[in-house]
Amino acid sequence: MAQNSDAVKQAMFEELQKILHPDSDQRKSAEARLAQLKFTEWYGVLLAEFTIDQQLHIGLRQLASVMLKQYVNDCWADGGDVVEDGGAGDLPAIDAGATPALLVNDEAKRRIKQILPEGLYDQNSKIRSVVAYCIANIALYDWPGDWQELFDVIVKCLSGTENSVDGAMKVLVEFTLELDRQVGEVAPLILSEVYRIFTAANQYSVTARKYAVEILYSLLRSINTNIETRQEKSAILNPVLPNFMQRLIEGLTAPNGPHSSFQLKTQIIKILKYMISDMSKFVQPYVGTILPTIWQLLTQLADFYVKVVVNESEAAPFNGTDQDGDDDGVEDFTQMILQIFEFVHTIIEMKKYKAAIVNVLTDLVYITVLYMQITEEQAQQWLEDPEKFVDDEDEQGVEFTIRVTAHDVLLIVGREYEQQLLPCFTEALGKHSAVAEVDRNAGNPHWWKIHESSMLAVGSFKDMIVESPASFDMGQYLALIKMLMESQASPYLLGRCLWLLSRFCECDILRQPFMEQIVNVTVDSLSMDKPIVLRIMAARAIYGFCSNLKDNKDERHVLIMSKLENFFDGLVGLFEQSQNTVLGLFLEALSAIISFDVNVTATLCPKVITVTMTVFQKFHDDRFLVEMVQDVLKILSQNPFCLLPLQDRIIPTLVSILNHDQGGDQQTLAPDIALDVLQTLVKYSQAPLSDAMIESAFPSAVHCILRTEDHSVMQAGGECLRSFLAIAPEQICRYKNGEGLNYVLQVTTMLLNPMNTESTASFIGRLVITIITKVGNLLGDSVDLLLKAVLSKMQLVKSLNVIMSLVTIFAHLILLQLDAVMNFLSTVPGPTGETAMSFVLANWLSRQHLFYGQYERKVTTLALCKLFEHGVTTKDDRLNTVMIKEQVPATTPSGAAGNTGRRTRSASAKTPMVWVDTPVLVKIFKLLLHELASLREAKDALNKNTDSGDEANSSSDEEAADEVSGDGGKMSFLTLLTHMDDGDEDEEEDEDDRQLMAELMNDPIFQCDTMEYLTKFIESFSQHENFRAFLEKIDETEKNILQTFNIPSM
């Protein structure tokens, strides 16, 4: 064995050296050889030896360590083929057609576990990190059972050198991150050790103590997740946690230096935030100390933050910390402030702390606005990179700066404390204004920054201020804004003034002559000699003026209408100089301008089309900008003066793209984008469509779709043809004596082809429904063929959105042509011998609770009502004999009321489930009850603006876990999907829904509120003679739903 092992070791050493060779052929040869050596039994042992051998070149050791890391993942996480004998033997033959498991024996595993701890003492931090990861990964599977000595090894390292302490702490960090099943056994050992390290400030470095806090955080999360009862959690935590909490709180006030740092404090705050939100019972005794300490930290650091970060008027005095330089120190300081705001965010949303927040509300608003100021670094970056300026200042921005985070906290304060906020807000702004005036008189060049952040706050609370004019003196604030506009202190200040005034421009207090002065300043701010940030803010102001005064009928509307051409001319010059994100903002402003007045837009039409087409052709690969372009095209299409000029200009371009050979190298614009744009033009046009649309664009679109193999083109093409058919069905049918309808059917058949990917049929439901409802009388037998194709597609798809799209076809038709659908589904066989009725209902009812979208949920719910009513009243055996398979707990008899006691997540997971047959009408009835409950929950949440999160925070940790894991969690998820009648849907989706619902809306039943209809439907059924039979088949949860709607369930 030794000789074979030495031979393999020498071979591996040589191949590792070759991998580091600059010659690519040698590297490839070595990689292939190592791929074979990987399947020898002592491969991992040799990699471990290479990794810790400090006599070898560091590059080779790092390479070996990376390979060892993967080997450990493969052998412990995935499990290799364990062999009994310890011989390495010859290299095994590798079957090229298979993926063999790694060979590993217990002796090799033991040897690796003996070798690795030595690497924790290594001088190279990267080696220590990889070794720590490997040890932690192995420990997840072997400790404590198969590696009992590991903890002793860790303790020994913690008493050794600085390197070994670092290595041992990294092991514990990695281990506790993934800790799951053993947490109850190992947590007490680790907790006592990390407490010892954290409190031994003179013995251990700040970095080691920071690791100790990270480990505590991971342990708390793991204990809270994996330990079921509060008693078990207490048994683990109580011996250490009280003292630990006290020392953590003290750690927040320790000065930075050898024993503390911003990073350490950040980790402490992270733990306190987690415990307050998720382990409130354990942290409650210390809240009275935690809240003042955090508040003191936030307020005391504010002046420091303004001087060092916002204004850079003082150097960052970050000496004596564990940082490498001032830049890192500033970054760590910033991260700590962000973590404090995360903590404040959590506290604000918890009902139990409302009284405490109200007591400091003025100071909280004051300090938050202070942290919202623009920093010098941001001001410089934004001037140099306007794209970043737009990204950072966008409401949907993703970068978590202190300005953004503080602003978010302020918005949450406004939402949670609306009634008490405005007086406190006024007082806080007054203090800021007084301080700014003192700074201005003292010659401080940064005096304007607090005014800018104050105006951002005022603009954010616009609705509240407008609704409560007595609580905020807007007239006085406008006088201040007028003075600030004239100060010329900063383009950021002037831009914010314009933005704020555009937000309030429809208020009666903002009238002539100040209004005209504002608009003129806005136009002037668009000129090319102004800073780019001011021009961007002026564009935002234009959007505000046009959007807010569009429906206004007084002189302000006339004023804006007289300036629309000036607005447009100012924007046009900016289009040529701007890139993607800034262009998007300018296109938004352009959309607002051309939406304001159809007659002015008619005069601007040629220029608008030119600008829009230029952006479209230049940035066609930017999906975000293409959507913005389509918004402009939509507005122009709905303007009768602009429709024909627009089509004359854009249709030849689109036809050229669609007719282009997609296999050629010269293609510059994707045909799926062209089809999307064409769909927009058609969807927002009025019938009859122009000759260019029917004779040129329509056939080009069809031929492009039929010859493509690109699934995105197929998907976009189906939607495009649906719009053609929805707007001008007669014209499509007349095209070449019926050839147009054949084209549409060819494309539909192509999209339903089972051999194509599922994504091609994502919207097929809407296309098929449009075909049948618009031109079904012309299809003859083709209707049956089309529905059979739908059934064939349904057999193979798994994606929810595609299943939903296909099911919706039958749901829609049930509402319009119930008898025809029943006949079809009961006579056509399903894929496994049952009727298509059983097949469709099985796919439908098992997923109904997951469906989403305004149209889809409403139609499927109402269709189930109609099916249920048909089955109950006619006793139609074609429907009533269908059985639906569903899973129920094995301990609960099918159809009987289940155990209604609270059950934990793990208890639920352990309950065996069995498949049972449920009559289809019973299943539908259950689904309708749950649908009604989720609609009620959604409506209550919207109308009452209840704070269910606060209630959860005030309950016990176990109750919170049960709510997440039980039916309550499911209902909450459904609530997000159930805004069926007045939710915030995408505007494009709304238009599609309107077109699809038009046919249904002829029946008054479908014009009602879904919840109201469903309630009346079930109330009516409760009077039916069969109602009691159904009551016997539902569980306690479903009976409770009936009781909440005052429907007797006994």
From TrEMBL:
InterPro entries named among the record's database cross-references: ARM-like, ARM-type_fold, HEAT_IPO9_central, Importin-beta_N, TPR_IPO7/11-like
Pfam families for this protein: HEAT_IPO9_c, TPR_IPO11
Annotated compartments: Nucleus
GO MF, one example: small GTPase binding
Stretches for region Disordered: 887-910, 943-969
Main location class: nucleus
Gene3D superfamilies assigned: Leucine-rich Repeat Variant
Domain Importin N-terminal: 30-122
Keywords: Nucleus, Protein transport, Transport
Biased composition (Acidic residues): 956-965
Any one cellular-component term (Gene Ontology): cytosol
GO BP annotations, alphabetical order: protein import into nucleus
PANTHER family: IMPORTIN-7, 8, 11, IMPORTIN-9
Similarity section: Belongs to the importin beta family.
Protein name, as recorded: Importin N-terminal domain-containing protein
